[in-house]
Amino acid sequence: MAELNIVEKVLALECVELLRNLKPEQLARIAAVASEVSLAPGKNVYEPGRPPAALFVIIEGAVELSRGGDVLAVARQNEVLGAWALFDDEPLAIDARTLEDTRLLRISREDFYDVLADNPEITQALFSTLVKRFRALVEQS
């Protein structure tokens, strides 16, 4: 299968809630550092007890999220794994394993920080989104 081009990567990144407030040209900067990863069924995306080093967007396929053997959810196309991995390097308490052939976009924390360092307007938009999400959580309580 052909590698995604920059426009296809931008379209995939538009599905990421954390990145929704970004303009297409800002998403293109992030898409430029996103790499495509293909995994066979049964492969780990994340392992419990290991710090996540990247965010993943599922392009196609399915990833099962579990904790202690209990299935929590199954993530599919256009869903995101590890959005918080970009900001927190604490080990995860979950296992994320592919259920079928799966294609993902991978954005490493290091590459993401490089983009943020060079593009303060992206940082501002992301913080706005995070504050809105936090406010919504607090207001639900």
Main features:
4 helices; 141 residues; single chain; 8 strands; globular; four-stranded antiparallel beta sheet; Jelly Rolls
Domains (count): 1
Written as H for each helix and E for each strand, in order along the chain, the element string is HHEEEEEEEEHH
Radius of gyration: 15 Å
Low-pLDDT sequence parts? none
Quaternary: single chain
Query: Sheet bearing the most strands, described?
Result: 4 strands, antiparallel
Architecture per CATH nomenclature, i.e. the level-2 architecture = Sandwich
The first-to-last residue Cα distance is: 46 Å
By helix and strand content, what is the structural category? alpha+beta
Sheet with most strands: strand arrangement? 1-8-3-6
Number of helices: 4
CATH topology annotation: Jelly Rolls
Give the class-level CATH name: Mainly Beta
Helix content: 25-40%
Molecular shape: globular
Describe the SSE topology.
Elements: H1 6-13, H2 24-31, E1 35-39, E2 44-46, E3 54-60, E4 63-67, E5 70-75, E6 80-81, E7 95-98, E8 102-108, H3 109-118, H4 120-140
Antiparallel strand pairs: 1-8, 2-7, 3-6, 3-8, 4-5, 4-7
Helix pairs in contact: 1-2, 3-4
Molecular structure report:
This protein is α+β, with helices and mostly antiparallel strands. The chain has one domain (6-140): Jelly Rolls (Sandwich), CATH 2.60.120.10. The protein has four helices and eight strands; from the N terminus they run ααββββββββαα. The chain has helices spanning 6-13, 24-31, 109-118, 120-140, and strands spanning 35-39, 44-46, 54-60, 63-67, 70-75, 80-81, 95-98, 102-108. The strands form two sheets. A four-stranded antiparallel beta sheet has the order 1-8-3-6. It has a four-stranded antiparallel beta sheet with strand order 2-7-4-5, with no helix packed on it. A hairpin with a 2-residue loop joins β4 (63-67) and β5.
